[in-house]
Amino acid sequence: MLLYFLCLVLFSIGIFCILRKRNLIKIIIGIIIAEYAVHLFFALVGYRAEGRSPIFTPSENIFNMVDPLPQALVLTAIVIGLAVTAMMVAIAIRIYDKYGTFDITKIRKLHG
């Protein structure tokens, strides 16, 4: 239960960075923190205490097996998240090249 609460705290830190920071790089870091909090939560959902790996063998019965579906989903989400993060950083660099700042309040004032 404590681990789920820590995931919530980590997600809250990420959301706080997204909503309250003015720098684009800090906003991107907040998105990354929130994203990895969700990944950690999904990995915890599939976890079993003293569970075995989900490899079936015909000779033995495994009763306490870790759920492989959340692990596969998180692995896919990490790859997609990496591509999205690279795209966000590329867009932030293009904005910096055009406006000369990462501050979103100054970017909103500059129309052009």
Report on this model:
There is one protein chain. The protein has one domain (1-26, 42-47, 64-112). The relative contact order is 0.14. It is mainly α and 112 residues long. It is 71% helix and 0% strand. The mean pLDDT is 89. The longest helix is centred in the last third of the chain and has 32 residues, at 68-99. α1 (2-20) packs antiparallel against α2 and α2 (24-45) packs antiparallel against α3 (68-99).
Comma- or semicolon-separated keywords:
single chain; mainly alpha; 4 helices; 112 residues
Secondary-structure map with pairings?
Elements lengths: L1 H19 L3 H22 L22 H32 L4 H6 L3
Helix pairs in contact: 1-2, 2-3
Describe this structure in a few short sentences.
The chain is mostly helical and 112 residues long. The protein has 4 helices and no strands. The protein has one domain (1-26, 42-47, 64-112).
Estimate what percentage of residues fall within beta strands: under 5%
Report the structural category. Answer: mainly alpha
The total of helices stands at 4
Mean pLDDT: 89
Major β-sheet, in short?
Answer: none
First-last Cα distance: 50 Å
The global form is elongated
Unreliable stretches (pLDDT < 50, length at least 5) are none
N-to-C SSE series? HHHH
User: How many β-strands, per DSSP?
Assistant: 0
Give the count of structural domains. 1
Our Rg estimate from Cα atoms comes to: 20 Å
Q: Oligomeric state of the chains? A: single chain
Q: Helical residue percent? A: over 70%
